[in-house]
Amino acid sequence: LAKTTQPISMDSYEGQEVNITCSHNNIATNDYITWYQQFPSQGPRFIIQGYKTKVTNEVASLFIPADRKSSTLSLPRVSLSDTAVYYCLVGLFNNAGNMLTFGGGTRLMVKP
Amino acid sequence: DTGVSQDPRHKITKRGQNVTFRCDPISEHNRLYWYRQTLGQGPEFLTYFQNEAQLEKSRLLSDRFSAERPKGSFSTLEIQRTEQGDSAMYLCASSKHRQVNTGELFFGEGSRLTVL
Predict the structure, then answer these.
(1) Are strands A18-23 and A45-50 parallel, antiparallel or unpaired?
(2) Nearest residue on chain A to B95, judged by CA atoms?
(3) Which of A13, A28, A74, B86 lies at a C-alpha separation of 20 to 30 Å from B59?
């Protein structure tokens, strides 16, 4: 199973761009990279997913270098409501049952 | 609301009692997962179903834990003879099985268990 390493916590201010990097050195060829956001007392919520290069949606961008051993979640112009824990997941479910593994996540604190 | 729903949201019980949690997945999703999350930690995988078949169980799922999905729709997670270490948030998620499963899971709000 591909394991991930993220910073434990990050601080930012409203209006700034936040970049959270995740390392996944043993990512497998078929693994996708998925990011989730979790608020206290709620289940994780899917943010964005990618396989290689760059993916952008209305919430965030995901940058994946050619070697795919890391990925960076970019949140443009954060607000107080973006204060949450962000998880990077690497993995793929297949018929053999490989599981997605959540790491400890990155606790983002957005200050006014 | 057509998301994943879990019941109860909160459960307080005494050590040694049995508890059962229910999860209703998104209706067209044939995969259902159970995770456990303790304070300050990421969710830990417990088990998952494809339709009614339980395909994988984590070693975290001791003999006191049992999960079912009898008709491939809702699922239950039962914990027998609860211990204080079982106190956690129990999360259910669902997804639609595809040729390539990329890991987009839809989570419920969780069931918080407190064992006194």
Answers:
(1) unpaired
(2) A93
(3) A28
Name the burial class of residue A79, with classes exposed (0-12), middle (13-18) and buried (19+) by CB atoms within 10 angstroms of its CB: exposed
Residue B85 to residue B115: CA distance in whole angstroms:
8
- Residue B68 contacts A, CB cutoff 8 Å: no
- Burial class from Cβ neighbours inside 10 Å (0-12, 13-18, 19+) for residue B66 reads middle
Closest C-alpha to A86, from A68, A112, A67, A110: A110
| Cα B31 from Cα B98, distance rounded (Å) | 10
- Picking from B56, B102, B107, the nearest residue to A43 by CB comes out as B107
Mean pLDDT of B16-32: 94
Question: How far, in Å, CA of A74 to CA of A77, rounded?
Answer: 10
B110 contacts A44 by C-beta, under 8 angstroms = no
- What's the pLDDT tens digit per position in B32-72? 999 999 988 889 889 989 899 998 888 878 899 999 999 88
Interface check for B55 against chain A (CB to CB < 8 A): the answer is yes
Distance separating alpha carbons of residues A8 and B3, to the nearest angstrom = 30
Mean pLDDT of A38-59: 92
Within 8 A by CB and 6+ apart from A52, the residues are A64, A66, A68
CA atoms within 13 A on the CB side of B3: 16
